[in-house]
Amino acid sequence: MEMKPPAIVIKGNWYDIWCDANLTKTSTLYGLVQGLWRDAIVYDSSGAKWILTDMVPERQFGPLARFLSRLFYNPRFKAEAKIKPGGRFEMEHLKREVTRLIDEDDDILSQFLTKEELRAGVANASTVPEIIHIFNKGTGIEQIVGVDGQ
Asked: pLDDT tens digit string along 42-98?
């Protein structure tokens, strides 16, 4: 079984949008060292849920780089996302998670739409791409290739 994009990745009050099936992503060194991605949930377009188990960087980092990433040295690196199947999800569950993100938003999602408009859009959405489209409108990104029909 393979993850079907586009997908929404959620962990706590953080989210990401994966537009394609390529599992090579970009992360900060700090994010890799701290394992900030670990245990994020990936909700794909087929209704499958995936658990992000690890991000494996394209190269290893020594103790000095790991230490400095906590202070000021925090470059971005490519890393391979490792995911495992997590079952199926109900759209209502995803909508609740996304609504929680909107409620906890500190003005990132609601730059171009109000929280009320975002909540209404999510409530009316019936697919993952529709929810992503609402996110895109809220953040001012009108189109992402592979998500909004482009």
From this structure: 999 999 999 999 999 888 888 887 787 777 778 888 999 999 999 999 999 999 999
Q: What is the 8-class DSSP label of residue 35? A: T
H and E: helices and strands count for the chain: 5, 6
Q: For the chain, what are the domain ranges? A: 7-88, 91-139
Separation between Cα atoms, residue 88 and residue 48, nearest integer Å: 4
| Cα–Cα distance measured from residue 136 to residue 139, given in angstroms and rounded to the nearest whole number | 5
For residues 98, 49, 56, 133, the Cα torsion angle rounded to the nearest 10 degrees is -40
**DSSP character for 73?**
-
In angstroms and rounded to an integer, the radius of gyration of the C-alpha atoms of the chain is: 16
Buried-state track 13-44, b at ≥16 Cβ within 10 A, e below 16: eebebbeeeebebebebbbbbeebbeebbbbb
